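Progress note, sequence design subtask.
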């Protein structure tokens, strides 16, 4: 039996969190191995990072499924079935959503119960969706919001950025912040607590 935890990472963008996970595996901070990376956009940095690290990767495009079926709902369903099969073929212990911009349906999630982990740049119950940092920044400008945060949570169902929290951490919004400096500090916290949360999940499995 393989003891090192097998991670399949899904990523849509620059992949700095994927990089933090790859680095944590290579230094031994995580007793884990990224065995495969799946992206859903062509030409993203996340794929380059996988390539550089010698991790197998593939791109699965929703658009290609849209061309094969009648309705958007059917396309999403067949996409999630294909995605689940692609992920399952790498026998993951954990499926890591690291900036994955695609809402997963039960046809995917039910294949990996309790094993899908998401990162979100806001505290539990606040600012769900793709614009969490922008939304918090707007509330800072409008009403003086003085903090936001980061959370790592399990994904049990289709709820958006919602599910049992593994770790979360507050990030203060400083008077001296710009939108960019806030985002940078959020990313620094993400890179640390995502690795900590995965470590915690790995230890819970043992
Ligand atoms: C992160 O802020 C994550 O919380 C959000 O998307 C961003 C991904 O960044 N869901 P990266 O691709 O890991 O650099």
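Output:
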């Amino acid at each position: 039996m393989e003891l090192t935890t097998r991670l399949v990472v899904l990523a849509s963008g620059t992949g700095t969190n994927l990089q933090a996970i790859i680095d944590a595996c290579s230094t031994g901070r995580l007793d884990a191995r990224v065995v495969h990376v799946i992206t859903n956009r062509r030409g993203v940095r996340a794929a380059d990072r996988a390539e550089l690290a010698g991790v197998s990767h593939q791109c699965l495009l929703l658009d290609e499924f849209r061309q094969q079926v009648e309705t958007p709902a059917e396309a999403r369903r067949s996409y999630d079935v294909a995605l689940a099969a692609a992920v399952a073929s790498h026998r993951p212990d954990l499926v890591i959503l690291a900036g994955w911009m695609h809402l997963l349906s039960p046809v995917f999630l039910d294949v990996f119960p309790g094993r899908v982990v998401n990162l979100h740049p806001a505290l539990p119950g606040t600012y769900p969706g793709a614009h969490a940092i922008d939304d918090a920044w707007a509330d800072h400008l409008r009403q003086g919001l003085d903090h936001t945060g980061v959370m790592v949570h399990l994904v049990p169902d289709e709820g958006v950025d919602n599910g049992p929290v593994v770790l979360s951490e507050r990030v203060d919004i400083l008077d001296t912040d710009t939108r960019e400096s806030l985002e940078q500090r959020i990313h620094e916290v993400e890179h640390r607590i995502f690795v900590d949360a995965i470590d915690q999940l790995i230890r819970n499995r043992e």
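The chain has seven helices and seven strands. Work on this subtask will continue into the next period as scheduled.
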